[in-house]
Amino acid sequence: MTVALVPGAQAAESQNSAPRSVIPLGRAVGIKLFAQGVLVVGLSDITTDQGLASPARACGLQEGDVITHINDAQVSSIEEVQTILQDLEGQEMELTVLRDEESQEVTTRAAQCSTDGAYKLGAWIRDSMAGIGTLTFVDPETGLFGTLGHGINDVDTAVLMKLQSGAITPASVAGVVKGVNGRPGELRGAFSSSQDLGTLYANTESGVFGHLQDPGTFTGTPVPVATAEEVHTGQATILANVAGTEVEEYTVEILKVYSNTSDTRDLMLRVTDPRLLEKTGGIVQGMSGSPILQDGKLVGAVTHVLIDHADRGYGILAQNMLDQAAQAQNT
Question: Three-state DSSP class for 55?
Answer without folding.
Answer: helix
